[in-house]
């Protein structure tokens, strides 16, 4: 929970990772380059005091992730997203099994999302069912740009992807988080394109497609898709760091999102450990769209901030929210 400006916010970090990108786990130069690229984003967009040297960034421990997310990062609950990347990392970068074991060590703190890759065929469908049975998955994290052998990506509209989405629907896994953001080395830019979200969202109205990083730098494409597809949501990981480095740019991003979507379909996410949630929560809770931009974009009210910081994710994941944080006495006033 975060308290500031007379408000107490229930915080759900909807996009966190428990990774091992250490040299010992790097399979090849692509794994090394992937970690270095993430570290570059971390260094360039983090405020002073939150920039980690590469050797501390590469691998996370139980103590660090719990301390950063809950003790100093204000999260009431964190959703661990899986990204196996087994072509680049010997034991995977952040696997469902690793996340699940962490969640078991700290009950009530974490939710575990699985993953799938349609290129795994029938065997992957069985594996998804096993993961769901083991950890009662409510969501999956997908990366359409992940490499697999000679393949450098896939689409949500692929026939085998449909088979997996059908399996999710039958298992009750309704939250489909899809990474659609800036290119991370060595992945290909075109594999992050948001166009396939349109196809899948229309075909599967019973699923919720949370587009992580809100499609950046394809924000306009994402907004047009989300406008016509009510089951498309925006995850704000990658957008939020601009609170520090380019606050007017962030105002434009959040303003466009609130215009085209609505305040009920945007989710806070730190992308931990790319960024530390403490400064993201504090800056977002204190942020206001500049006065000269409010004529076009409006203002961020406490009600909007409550929803984005935790209430929207709580609704999607059936989380119990304390009544005192679910409604704010100043919810109709600008902050």
Write a compact overview of the structure shown:
The chain is of the alpha/beta class. The chain has helices spanning 29-45, 54-57, 62-71, 96-105, 121-135, 159-171, 195-203, 219-228, 242-245, 247-260, 277-286, 291-297, 302-316, 323-326; strands spanning 2-4, 7-9, 12-16, 77-80, 110-112, 139-142, 175-179, 208-212, 232-235, 266-267.
Which key terms come to mind for this protein?
about 325 residues, alpha/beta, 3-stranded parallel sheet, 10 strands, about 10% strand
What does this structure look like?
There is one protein chain. The protein has helices at 29-45, 54-57, 62-71, 96-105, 121-135, 159-171, 195-203, 219-228, 242-245, 247-260, 277-286, 291-297, 302-316, 323-326, and strands at 2-4, 7-9, 12-16, 77-80, 110-112, 139-142, 175-179, 208-212, 232-235, 266-267. By secondary structure, it is an alpha/beta fold. The strands form three sheets. It has a five-stranded parallel sheet. The two termini are 18 Å apart.
